[in-house]
Amino acid sequence: MKKSKIYEGKAKILYKGPEQGTLIQHFKDDATANNNEKMEIFEGKGVINNRISEHIFTLLSAIDIPNHFIKRLNMREQLIHEVDIIPLEVVIRNVATGSLTKRLGIPDGEKLTRPLIEFYLKDDLLKDPIVSEEHIITFGWANQNELDDISSLAFRINDFLVGYFSALKIQLIDFKIEFGRIFKNEEVHVILADEISPDSCRLWDFETKLKMDKDVFRESTGNLLDGYHEVARRMGLININEVSKNNKPTLIKG
């Protein structure tokens, strides 16, 4: 049966879900960088990101981080709660790199004395400009209570993920998350939405500092999927030693 498309972004497509208040989130193989100036398709990227994001959202649910994930439907799709997306990209930084070093002249790779939260307006035409809390409140993108909830949840998520990835010998450099509003028990709640995957995180090997995220594509320093596969392998989601008929690493069923 043909699905009804609601929205298509750079890396995902949203379809109308089977029940009211649900959506189907489809992970694409597309990779983009530098505001769509660089684009390429990596076969299987969507499958890996779907599985990684599912695993992380399930772990976050177990520690009472409210989020939109309901269940994985197949290799590329998840069933999620429909939310009113707050038009902000929330970035948590643990180590200086990327735009932070360019804007402020901080040495690349310098560990920050504490996690840093930044907010960017979700607007491709404006190239997702950084904004302050005052901008957010003044222009009504979120109210103060919502912003407090977003910040609190973002730091809790960071605390958990830093520890989780550390156990896998991976350093969580920074990551981008999004939040949405959902109506529950006659109240509006802020919950985690979108995805958490190597597309939205910077992940470095603890010892070698090898990058296992989309920076490999941004900087043209190697094969994007090699890093994604290694992250999935360390998470116990993929078996590099077991090869499928297509000569590709095999996902472990969960």
In short:
With 254 residues, the chain is of the alpha+beta class. The protein is 27% helix and 36% strand. It is built from six helices and 16 strands.
Structure, explained:
The relative contact order is 0.15. The protein has 254 residues and is of the alpha+beta class. The two termini are 26 Å apart. The strands form 4 sheets. Strands 8, 9, 10, 11, 12, 13 and 14 form a 7-stranded antiparallel β-sheet that branches. It has a 5-stranded antiparallel β-sheet with strand order 1-2-3-7-6. A hairpin with an 8-residue loop joins strand 10 and strand 11. Helix 1 (45-62) runs parallel beside helix 6. It folds into 2 domains: 5-83 and 228-251, Phosphorylase Kinase, domain 1 (2-Layer Sandwich), CATH 3.30.200.20; 85-205, ATP-grasp fold, B domain (D-amino Acid Aminotransferase, Chain A, domain 1, 2-Layer Sandwich), CATH 3.30.470.20. The model is unreliable at 242-247 (pLDDT under 50). The protein has helices at residues 45-62, 99-104, 133-138, 144-167, 215-218, 224-234, and strands at residues 5-8, 12-16, 22-27, 30-33, 38-41, 69-72, 77-81, 84-85, 88-95, 111-121, 130-131, 170-184, 187-193, 201-205, 238-243, 249-251.
